[in-house]
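#struct-help
A.M.: can someone run this one for me? Single chain, 576 residues.
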Amino acid sequence: MRPGFAPDCSEGLYRPKAFGPAESSGITLLDKNILASRIFILIGMSLAQRKRLVVDDGQSICPTEARRDVGRRRIAAGGFTYLRTIVMNSRKLRIAVIGGGASGIMAAIKLREIGQTDIQVFERAAEIGGTWRDNRYPGIACDVPSHLYRYSFAPNPDWTRVCASGSEILEYLRRVYDDFDIQRHMVFNAEVEAATYDKGTWTLETTVGARGPFDVVITAMGILRHPTMPDIEGLDSFEGIGFHTAHWRDDVELAGKRVGIIGTGSTATQIISAIVARTGRLSVFQRTPQWIMPLPNTPIPEEEKERFRRDPVLMQKRYDDLADDFNNKWAAAIVGQLPRVYAHIERTCQVNLEESVRDPVLREKLRPDYKVGCKRLIMSDSFYEAIQHPNADLVTESIVRIEPKGVRTADGRLHELDVLILATGYNAHATFEPMRITGRGGLTIEEAWKDASEAYLAVAIPGFPNFFMIGGPNSPIGNFSFLMTAERQCGYAIRMIQHMLVAGVKAVAPKPEATREFNEAIRKQMGSTIWSTGCRSWYMDKNGNIASWPWTFQHFEDMMGMPELEHYEQYDGAHA
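D.P.: on it. Structure tokens below:
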């Protein structure tokens, strides 16, 4: 067995060792601190998380009763009493959260739950909201059901549709922001340009001046911030009105106009469905067709909303059922764990194409040549109908160049346009750009990531103490609620903060060897996922590395639930 890893009942799972052999005597002060910290982390987990943990207590054990035995022995050793004393007298930390979108708001709420109130949330814009504030294109909606796309601690009985619009989600975020009084932590119009670690603390350089020192930094910046512009000759020569969907022009009238849209991803399909009927002509330039999963986005009846208002337990059951469908079935199928579920997904998409598109020529143009799920699956109940509208023209010839009057394709045709919309997505791998980050000993993020963007468990980086990421490299992304991912990652960061408080540790950073082993496991396991079957997607970076989680979401929850302290460098005040 490799050092640092425990035996596992499930082949292919990354499992760091949870606990070493229990001791019943001879516990030093530092031992007690670390022991108390571990118990604190353990009792803060849900019962389900605790049951799923695996322990290496000197022998192969799968999985749960031995964990209870170890916990009982350690508590009996005196750790719990010591824990209570430490928590009552724990110090307050100064914590910076970078980003005022959904993840940043949630981080502030969760930090306050553990008694940390010296929090500053830095937001580059003048208001909260992140991607739901910035994206305002016609038809924008979440492709995850409303009752799953919400904070676990802030249910909303009043969602109006199965999948909420962008404006409704933004209103939900604003309501949570107000209800939890996050305003007092916000610093608006303050883009963080640099973060520097020195002797145990972080200093931030922002557009409103230097801020700090901070004991902990949590990044909640989102991955869809930097629009990707297509590399097409003559793009700047277009004489009409052109813009990227990230910078939607509300002042541009589309009625009766010749409109072109480059791209066929989630954003493009929503826009096409929303605008095709009012355009004079809509030319859709398709490089790669997409698989479409039908997801009827119907209004939620008032009677159902009233039932949820009266019965929070019923609303929680809806959340749990959706989480099971999307995270434990869907996500598991995509990573190769549930072949029968994957076969059902595949068949549903194929039947949707066959039964929805009447023209056999158009149908074949829309048929992908890669496996369902290799690219992020499109959820829509309206795209196929929209692309068959008399105003729509699906263009599959490759674009040669942009000219002043329109788009020239490889067949020599000039598609004359009044408006050109770029639905070409975002660079999901520009994690911190343009922010400069300098860690311990002057290590820069560029140096740390010169070969690849690698983190430990997608939340922390060697050489960058007390620096935690929501949405770091290899976070679970895809067709499920990212808010669930964000909550689990924030919970992990908070457990590490609790450990620092209880154990009297000044700073923590993952060990290079632990990070290396984790990323080796990622690369090995990725070949079993549907993302590695031959398509090109935004999950891939420029080097072909797939930045997603290659195991089940359940396994991700397990890993987030119990930080493995032996995989961290821990510094006292003199050596931080």
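A.M.: thanks! Residues 1-10, 17-32, 45-89 have pLDDT under 50 and may be disordered.
D.P.: also worth noting: The first helix runs from residue 29 to 43.
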